[in-house]
Every structure is written in structure tokens, then in C-alpha cells.
Amino acid sequence: MKSALILATTILMTLPASSAIAADVTPPDAEKRPHVVKAPHGAERNDEYYWLRDDEREDKAMLAYLEAENAYADQVMAPLRPLEDALYGEIVGRIKQDDSSIPARERGWWYYARYETGKDYPIHARRKDGRGVDALSIQQANERGDFAGEQVLLDVNVLAEGKDYYAVGAYEVSQDNNVLAWADDTNGRRQYTFRFRDLATGKAYPEELRGTSGDLVFADDNRTVFYVENDPETLLTKRVKRHVIGTDPRDDVVVYEEEDDSFYMGIDRTRDDRYIVIAVSSTVSDELRYAPAADPAAFTVLASRERDVEYQADHLDGRWVILTNAEGAKNFKLVEAPSGTTSRRDWKDIVAHDDAVFLETFELFDGFIAIGERSDALERVRILGTGGREEYVQADEPAYSMGLSANTEHDTTKLRYTYTSLTTPATTYELDTATGERIVLKRQPVLGYDPSQYVTERVWATARDGEKIPVSLVYRKGFEKDGSAAMLQYAYGSYGMSMDPGFSVTTVSLLDRGMVYALAHIRGGQELGRRWYDNGKLLNKINTFTDFIDVTDHLVAQGYAAKDRVAAFGGSAGGLLMGAVSNMAADRYRVILSQVPFVDVVTTMLDPSIPLTTNEYDEWGNPEQAPYYAYMMKYSPYDNLRAQAYPAMFVGTGLWDSQVQYWEPAKYVARLRDVDTGAGPLVFRTNMEAGHGGKSGRFRRYREQAEMYAFMLDQLGLAGK
């Protein structure tokens, strides 16, 4: 039997003559150990790399394999280090390092985050409201380096000192503005610890609330907090607890416990601060409980859960306003109900259901409601005033992203919203709904970038079943559709998450090298409403993958890219997409970039101890049921690897990822090395200190992306351009 570590193979990879990647390096070879994975209905599969799973992340043989893959990646990528450095320098060079966020006012204080040059982490701070103090004046002071009157809440640079990974998940301030609670994570697994500080004295309270989701709210007494506790194994949000600051957390009382493992849980306050709410949500159902923030002794159910009935609710001006798909409103509608309601029978329509308009979110104000919605695969902001008066915020480009921004106060006529596109940096506007006056609060500074040199457009590709798939494109001005260019195509296509076209400081480096960037709005998202999502999940999931392939074929046929110069990129569930399309249409892609990929679908969904599994039966199906098992086996990337020439591939993961466990891509790469007959390199990079989002710090992720893009550019023949 081979060593549990790695054995050298005798076959050296062969590369195109133009590649600078080191070709004289032997890739790792993981040991095979027979292991049978059984399903309750009798189906069995052999998983020879199952041994790479170690929930504790301590197995020496497993760690040695990951380290060997990292060492191999270092050697293979060494000749591309100058290109990686150049890309990193370009990307970071576009970032204004001493930038700050737009201040938001809450209870007499202006809150914001700011960065200092050369530092990785933000400084969270606030300033007292007063004469002449507003969002613009604070921003101008920050730009001058004038921090007089500022109170620093959290200097994350100090908190992160000496730690390989550090992230502040959230922070909350008590209703009297005097107590700070913040949640931090030190390994990327999203298990947060809450800590408390007296803002008047700077004194820290001794207790810590461990194993939380990062959700917490204060009651009106400013000493009682409610927080969500995770299950230590599955990381499911299981229970809400009540804690009194200054007491032992072991005495905390469970206020609510969710028994159904298909539900997530969160806690918040309503818009008017009148209620504390506990919201539980599955893929297809919601339930909300509320209690008076002044006396949160008992929680009342707003509307009992019912399968296929979703809703989200907020409270203002003596009424609940609720976004729901009840009564067949697949694209959702907006309803209202009196404060004391406990039944859907009390719900009355405000905005009726529309087959052509998908309602996504809303925000309540004293004199109007702002609604975020979609039509024709584009976002809109609708302002619904008194007496049924409506108006829409206008956009100026064919493909863009628009949405509600941070609107922390309801007693105002001013609405903040954001606008961006593939060519326009993120811009936050403030619109006075009473006068129509609009001002720019902030436009993302991008140093050395001239938007007039780039072009964005929206095209529609025809899928094999006749559906029209929207695609957002961007390229540098002067580009010619002559079928010679290189192209990067990105998509996600799961969970109803819409991938809207937004500006990226990293993409500019690709456009400046002559590449086209394509964002495919495939089924599985909700760009075209709930129907688009429903037709890309469960027993329709394969539509997601064929849509992506059909978009590629369309763009190549239209001359946007050369047939042999297409790269594809996806992460997490988008990594599942990458695994599926590389199995189904390996010849369409020269390069595949896959980050934290969900590639071992069947084995993971058969194991309810893995975080997210039970929550997602209504997304992927439950393979304990034979029909779903059979369907998932048709596309699961790990199970469909076979002897064929695969594209060059860069795969990344994080050892501490709690959403897609590291062993999925590790097993996938190990098996892919066994069957790949192609000449392209396969690089597997594991972040040994990071989770689902990669390493912490604002610059480190750009270093990782620069390495991945250097790999891609090399394979597309653009390394020297």
C-alpha cells in the first residue's frame, strides 16, 4: 500500500508552449483507502478519499497531504510570481487606503468605519450629533485626517494583532448609547464570541458569550441582551438565550429553541424599536416571534409557519408591513396588519402580486415605503407614498445594480440608495422624497480609473430549452467582436441569490489586458423572479449548468471570445457549477477557477452532522430519498469525474471553512488527478488559517485573487501582456 502521505508519480504534466508555469514538478498523489458510503435506500458508492475528512483538523496524514499540495502549488506557480506581484500592485494601487464609510445617524450619534493607510482592518468609530455635524462634514473631516470629537469603538487592527485570522462579525450599542457588544471570530469558522464594554469608562465586562451566530440585540433596560447560540457540531442556529450583562453566562435562560433542523434563526429589533423579533427561516417557510422591547418577557407568533409560505415583517406606525408569497404570490406582495395580529387572516394588500415584478425587500419610513424590486432582470427602487403615489429611481446604463442602502432612521424624508455597474464604481445617493433633490454622498474612489474607457452592455443568450438568459458584459473601449479575445465568465446560480453587475477593482486588470468579462444570470438565481429560482433547484438543478454552457456557446458564436480562450469562475455553490460544467463540457473551457467549491454533493447531503446539510434539503433535495439521490448523482462533480481531458484548473479552499468543508475540494482534486488525461495544470491551494471567505484583512484576499488570476492569464496566453 502507498504511504498515507504522498508518493511521486512518474508522469510529468505537459503544458502549452506559451505557459510559464513550471512543468518539471511532480504533483502529489493521495493514498486510496476503500470506503463505502451507503444511502438508506440501499445505494452504495466507493469513496477512496473519504479518509481526508477530519472534523478536528488534526489528522497528520491529511494535513501532510494538504501541505504537500500547497508546496506543489508554490513550485508550479513560482515562475508566475512577478505577474502575481504586478496584479496585486495594480489592484491595491486602485484602492484609497485611508478611506471611510458613509456615516449613519442613530440615536444622536453618527457611526462609521474608516481605514488607515497600510492597515488591514477597519476602525469603527462614532461622533456625537450636533450643529453643523452631518454625514458629509464627517466624511470631509475624515479625509483631512481630523478625528477631533471621535470616539473609537473598535480598532480591529489592535484586536487582530498576533492572530492569523481575525474578524469582527457585528457590533451593537445599547439603547442608551453606553454599552458596546461585539462578536469576533479567530479562525474563520463563523463561531462568534460576544464581548462587552462600558463606553463611558472604557472598562470591559468580564463575561464572554461563546458559540454564537453573531446575532444580538439589547432590550430597553440596556443590561439585558438576547443572542443566538449555535449547535457546536452542526453550527445550526439552535436557540435564543437571554443574558444580563455582569452575570455568569452559565445562568443564561433559553428563550426559544428551534427543533426543526431545516430552519435558520436570527434576532433583531423592529424599525420603530418597539419590538424584539426572533425570525426562523427555511428555504420554503418563515415564522416570526415578537416581544415588547420594554418588557420582553414573552414572545408572540406573528403568523404560524406553513410550508411554501414565506414572509418577512417590520413594524412602524401601529402596523406590521409584511413581504410574503402567501396566496400564490410567487413573486411576492406587500401586505399590512394591525400590531396585535397573530393570523394571516388580518393581512391586507398594499402592493399586489405581479407576474412581471419580483418584490425583494422594503424599508419603512414615516411618510413612505421604499421597495427594492426586479423586472426584466434589472433592479429598481420604487417609492410608495401616501395616497398610492409612486415613483421610481432612474438608472442610466443598460446593465447595473441598484438597491436600498443603510437607512437607519425612519423619521426622515431622505432615502439612501446605492448604484453601481460593471463600469461605474459603487455610488451612494441620498434622495429627498419631498423635494426630489438628489445628492451624491459617496462614490467609491478608484485611483487611476477612468470609467469612460470601458463599455458595459446587456445581451440575451438562448438556452437549449428556449429560455432567454440575461448576460452582463464589460470590456475596454475599442474592443472588437472578431472572435479572438480571451474571456472570463462568472456565475453563481443557487439559493435564489441574484448576481447583479457591480464594479470590481480586480476586474479592471483583466479588461486592461484585452479580456472580456461576462456575468451570466443563470437559473437558480432570482434575476427574473421566483420562477427563475424554482427552475434552477431540486429536480431542475441541471438547468443551472446547461444555462452556463449555453451562455458560453452564445458569446463565442457572437465573437466576444475565441473558442479556445474561455475561462470560467465560480465559488461555493458556484464551485459546484464549475465542477459540473467541467464534467459536462470540458472542451468549452481553457481554464476553470473554483473557490471553496461544493463538489461532493451526495455524500455531504447524506450527512446531517455537516453544517448546512439539513437546512438545504429544499435547495438540493434529500438523497435519503431515492429520486433525489438518482438526480443528484447525475451532476455531483466528485461522482461524475471520468477519464477525459479537463481544463487547466485552480482550486482553492480554507481549512476552517464551515460552509463547504475543506475535504470536498481535497477529495475532488485527488480523484481528478487520477482521471484527467489533459495537458493543463491542476493547482490546489488550501488556506490553513482561513474559512469560507479566505484570510482576514482587506488586502490578503487580493493577494489570493492575484495568484489565481496570474494562473488564468498564463493559460490564456496573456501572462506577458
From TrEMBL:
Q: Where is the signal peptide?
A: 1-22
Q: State the organism named in the record.
A: Luteimonas viscosa
What are the Peptidase S9A N-terminal domain coordinates in residue numbering?
28-443
Annotated Peptidase S9 prolyl oligopeptidase catalytic domain ranges read 502-717
Pfam families membership: Peptidase_S9, Peptidase_S9_N
Concerning its family, UniProt says:
Belongs to the peptidase S9A family.
The keyword Hydrolase is annotated on this UniProt entry: yes
Q: Does the keyword Transmembrane apply?
A: no
Q: Which UniProt keywords apply?
A: Hydrolase, Protease, Serine protease, Signal
Q: Which PANTHER family does this one have?
A: PROLYL ENDOPEPTIDASE-LIKE (PTHR11757:SF19), PROTEASE FAMILY S9A OLIGOPEPTIDASE (PTHR11757)
Among SUPFAM superfamilies, the record links this protein to: alpha/beta-Hydrolases, Peptidase/esterase 'gauge' domain
- GO MF annotations, alphabetized: serine-type endopeptidase activity
This chain belongs to the protein called S9 family peptidase
Question: Per the UniProt entry, what is one GO biological process?
Answer: proteolysis
